[in-house]
Amino acid sequence: MQQLTSAQVRELRARAHGLNPVVSIAENGLSDAVLKEIDVCLKAHELIKIRVYGDSREDRLAYYERICQELAAAPVQHIGKLLVVYRENPEKLTVDRNNSQKTRAAAPRRTKRSFQG
């Protein structure tokens, strides 16, 4: 699990504010297929929102911890039935040939990608 500073968490929360959930965890819970889909989304976007359907706060907390541990992601925010997680993708770093410095690749378009497991 990644550790973030409070400044990093604030910045990521601000970035996540306008995002839509890209993965949904339904009544079947956090299956291996759902974990795989979360992994794919983290590789593509780094910062994602996950919607959890279900009223059990304990289940949501358990899902949040399991996602962060198994996928080496950092917990950013848990508010209501939404979980926000972040994992840096080193493959998204590219070398700017003009400046010879590492810069971020262009951000992907935001698309709603829902997977219910």
Please characterize this protein's 3D structure:
- This protein has 117 residues and is of the alpha+beta class.
- It has a single domain (6-104), classed as YhbY-like (Translation Initiation Factor IF3, 2-Layer Sandwich).
- The chain has three helices and six strands.
- Strand 5 (93-96) and strand 6 (101-104) form a beta hairpin.
- The protein is globular, with a radius of gyration of 15 Å.
| Overall pLDDT metric | 85
What's the CATH architecture? Answer: 2-Layer Sandwich
CATH homologous group name = YhbY-like
- Main sheet: strands, sense, barrel: 4 strands, mixed
Write down the secondary-structure element order: HEHEHEEEE
**DSSP helical segment count:** 3
Radius of gyration: 15 Å
CATH fold name: Translation Initiation Factor IF3
Helix and strand content put the structural class at: alpha+beta
Unreliable stretches (pLDDT < 50, length at least 5) are 94-101
Overall geometry comes to globular
Helix content: 25-40%
Q: Write out the strand line-up for the largest beta sheet, numbering strands in chain order.
A: 1-2-4-3
Total domain modules: 1
Specify the oligomeric state.
single chain
Q: Please write the CATH class name.
A: Alpha Beta
The overall strand count is 6
**Gap between N and C termini, in Å?**
23 Å
Strand coverage percent: 25-35%
Protein name: Putative YhbY family RNA-binding protein
Pfam families: CRS1_YhbY
Organism: Azonexus fungiphilus
GO molecular function, one term: RNA binding
